[in-house]
Design a protein that fits this description.
CATH architecture of the largest domain: Alpha-Beta Barrel
Number of domains: 2
CATH class of the largest domain: Alpha Beta
CATH topology of the largest domain: TIM Barrel
Radius of gyration: 20 Å
Largest sheet: 7 strands, parallel
Mean pLDDT: 96
Structural class: alpha/beta
Helix content: 25-40%
Distance between the termini: 13 Å
Length: 370
């Protein structure tokens, strides 16, 4: 197909409760949506997972908008006819900017699948109609508030609890949450790079709580540190921020730095790259799961299709939309039933936009003619 227009739409969505990690606290999300229109009038949408500030990654919303308008859109325009599988090659000369590239590829993939009348789930070949749902629990101001929130998620039927941790908020919260949920329920922790190589003995204390994994405890570029930590503790070490490409995943697996990998499509440059990493991990016996970035229903629908692949053996962060937003921008938001979410089956990524609500929370729109 050939694209005639790219729309860059910024929206503002309030979170139902503040979400705090070792990177900081969020009370709302400024989100950049990318709409592409094909020459036959079909529209596809992608969602950029970059935050407002470059705290989680070097990318941020305003920067992504600039990169797309000044560098990505012209390259796509020059290419003419294309398919989603061409996007990575077209944009390869642009260094980095995985989240911007992923959002464009996502929008093109959505339009392409809508033209073909098939769903992303079918495109990927996932074998499951439902997938287990885990929930990510931020850092709270008190233990009582944490335990109250966790109990609520247990009552909601989630299959797994993930706790955000940082120095000073780790061993005791984990101990008390394990006591609350019991020994059978899945529990894991996410450090978001908050520790250093000096903390191995401290982190070894987590072995007592039978965790599924500890996610990204050390700096993004510290593969050797993660390798050494994996050898020093019993809790499996999972990489997140360290994996931005197939090659990085390959290297991390080769040196023993990644016993488990969290695959986030926005972080690795797109859903097609995410599938390649999934296949690599399956071939090497590395379990994977799908992480979340507080996506709207657009990103959640696509994440469901990805997480339905056989290699995703651990519950991902695909929680109910109401976990973060009182109202989503899609008409049928993701819900959790008996610990599972249904994989969307409609053409494209599997969602329909709530156009009226989307307009009401839009803060800016830019159209790029191709």
């Amino acid at each position: 197909m050939k694209l005639s227009n790219i729309e860059l739409r910024r929206i503002h969505l309030e979170l139902v409760t503040p979400f705090r990690t070792s990177f900081g606290e969020q009370t709302a999300r400024e989100i950049l949506l990318i709409g592409v229109t094909s020459d036959d009038g079909t529209v596809g949408w992608g969602e950029c997972v970059a935050m407002s500030e470059p705290l989680y990654s070097p990318e941020y919303v305003a920067g992504v908008e600039t990169v797309i308008s000044e560098f990505i859109a012209p390259r796509i325009s020059q290419r003419g006819d294309l398919i989603a599988g061409d996007i990575a090659e077209i944009l390869k000369p642009i260094k980095g900017h995985q989240m911007a590239k992923a959002a464009i590829e996502m929008a093109v993939l959505d339009a392409e699948l809508r033209i073909q009348g098939i769903n992303l789930h079918a495109r990927f070949g996932g074998s499951r109609a439902t997938i287990p749902s885990g929930v990510s629990v931020g850092i709270f101001s008190s233990i009582d508030a944490l335990l109250s929130a966790v109990q609520g998620y247990v009552d909601d039927g989630y299959a797994r609890i993930k706790l955000k941790i940082e120095p000073g908020w780790d061993i005791e919260p984990v101990r008390l949450v394990r006591e609350l949920i019991g020994p059978e329920m899945g529990l894991q922790v996410d450090a978001n790079t908050a520790y250093t190589r000096r903390d191995f003995e401290h982190l070894r204390q987590l072995d007592a709580y039978d965790l599924l994994l500890i996610e990204q405890p050390l700096d993004t570029d510290d593969l050797l540190g993660h390798r050494d930590l994996a050898a020093a503790i019993d809790t499996p070490v999972c990489l997140d921020e360290s994996i931005e490409s197939f090659v990085q995943a390959e290297d991390a697996i080769a040196i023993g730095a990644a016993e488990i990998i969290n695959i986030k499509p926005g972080r690795v440059g797109g859903y097609l790259e995410a599938v390649r990493i999934h296949d690599l991990c399956v071939a090497n016996g590395i379990p994977v799961w799908c992480g979340g970035m507080l996506e709207t229903g657009i990103g959640r629908a696509a994440n469901c299709a990805l997480a339905a692949l056989d290699g995703f053996v651990l519950p991902g962060d695909i929680s109910a939309s109401r976990r973060f937003y009182s109202r989503d921008i899609v008409l049928d938001p993701i819900e959790v039933n008996s610990g599972e979410v249904a994989v969307p089956s409609a053409p494209g990524l599997g969602y329909d936009l709530d156009s009226d609500f989307l307009e009401s929370i839009t803060t800016s729109v830019q159209h790029l003619s191709l």
